[in-house]
Amino acid sequence: MLLRHSNPEAEGHDGLEPILITHFFGPGRTLFMASDETYHWRSVAAKQFSRFWLQAVQAIANLATMPSAAAVFSSLFWLVLLLAPTAVGMRTLQLAWRNDGPLRWHPLPVIAVAFAAVSTHYEIPIYLVFSSSLTLTALLLLFGGSGKTVRRFACGAALAMTLAAVLLNAGQPLSRGILGTIAGVRTPLDAPATLPGASLAVERQDWQDYSALLAFIDRSVPPGVPILALPVNPEIYFLSRRPAIYRFNSTAIGIRNDEDLRAAIERFDQAPPPIVRVRSGPASGRSARVSAPNARR
Q1: 3 forms bridges with which residues in the sheet?
Q2: What is the distance of C-alpha 114 from the center of its chain?
Q3: How far is residue 68 from each of residues 28, 57, 183, measured CA to CA in Å?
Q4: Neighbouring residues of 98: CB distance < 8 A, sequence distance ≥ 6
Q5: For residue 59, what are the contacts with CB-CB under 8 A and spacing of at least 6?
Q6: Measured between alpha carbons, how far is 153 from 283 in angstroms, rounded to an integer?
Q7: What is the CA radius of gyration of the chain?
Q8: Are 180 and 187 in contact (CB under 8 A)?
Q9: Residue 287's beta-bridge partner residues?
Q10: How much of the chain is helix, strand and coil, in % rounded to 5?
Q11: In whole angstroms, what is the distance from residue 88 CA to residue 144 CA?
Q12: pLDDT in tens, 137-182
């Protein structure tokens, strides 16, 4: 927030309305000017008008074309996450080919490579993080018997990866997007309060969406009555203190064939839940609350 209105009549929910705002979007920066009247400046201060807009465009262009040290560090982090499983696999094959020592078919490197392959298959960066600790441990194991220089390099790389994961990616929401995640953009978790039963730092919009949904559930569903969240939102059951109509929380896991689908429909018809929450976008995106008959259709 760079500039706000000075007129008390221009006060909104969060104070005086903003005039000039800058923020990161992905790896770059955006500038929002809540006025289309700056052209009037040219009649009284043409030099200042030109200087303002030239400097504003230059500042955004510099940030877009010259990545920060944190962005470079985070990009290297994701690059190493992709290359590290390859190094583990190649080193494992090398030891196996040479029939060299007890590590030639050690289960840890083999499992690390398998987990990394599954993580990469999902094509979502967050899943690749899940296998990173296993991959780094396997690297330290495989290169632990190498020379002093190689061991120091492996330990330093593992430490750098840990710092990048904690400082740039830990606790960050998916709303950063792919580019923002790779660049290590830090999204402010500015919710004014925590959600009931969950001491988590979340974005303001997420807090507003969940608070409105939980309030609606409290008004519409008595305690202990099951609800349904589709396709997978187990946190809704936990936060609302309402059970799920099914024993599974994810339709991808619980409904895998026609027989599972028929059983789910039969259970739904026997005891239709008062509320069905359907997510039609990303985790922090659009959702809808529909009645049981509409959900059945």
Answers
A1: 20
A2: 23
A3: 10, 18, 9
A4: 104
A5: 29, 31
A6: 39
A7: 26
A8: yes
A9: 279
A10: 60, 10, 30
A11: 13
A12: 888 888 777 778 877 887 888 888 888 888 888 888 878 877 788 8
The DSSP call for residue 117 is H
Q: How many other CB atoms sit within 10 Å of the CB of residue 112?
A: 27
Residue 250: DSSP 8-state: B
Backbone phi and psi for residue 7, each to the nearest 5 degrees, phi listed first: -80, 120
**141 to each of 95, 105, 128, 158, 187, how far by Cα in Å?**
12, 12, 20, 12, 35
Tens digits of residue pLDDT in 84-133: 888 888 888 887 887 766 767 788 888 888 888 877 776 565 677 777 88
Whether residue 278 contacts residue 251, with contact meaning beta carbons closer than 8 Å, is answered with no
Beta strands in 91-211 (DSSP E): none
Helix, coil or strand: residue 70: helix
CA distance 172 to 195: 17
Question: For residue 220, what are its two tokens?
Answer: 């519409």
What is the distance between the alpha carbons of residues 33 and 39, in angstroms, rounded to a whole number? 13
Q: Cis peptide leading into 231, omega within 30 of 0?
A: yes
**Count of CB atoms within 10 A of residue 210's CB?**
20
Nearest to 180 by CA among 21, 23, 28: 28
pTM over 0.70: no
Contact by Cβ (8 Å): 173, 187: yes
Query: What's the CA gap between 26 and 284, in Å, rounded?
Result: 16
Pairing of strands 28-33, 11-12: unpaired
Reported as type and span, the H/E element at residue 55 is: helix 41-65
- Is residue 26 a contact partner of residue 177, using CB atoms and an 8 Å limit? yes
CB 260 within 8 A of CB 254: yes
Q: Which tokens is 89 given?
A: 């696999």
Domain ranges of the chain: 3-65, 69-183, 204-296
| Among 183, 192, 187, residue whose Cα is nearest residue 172 | 187
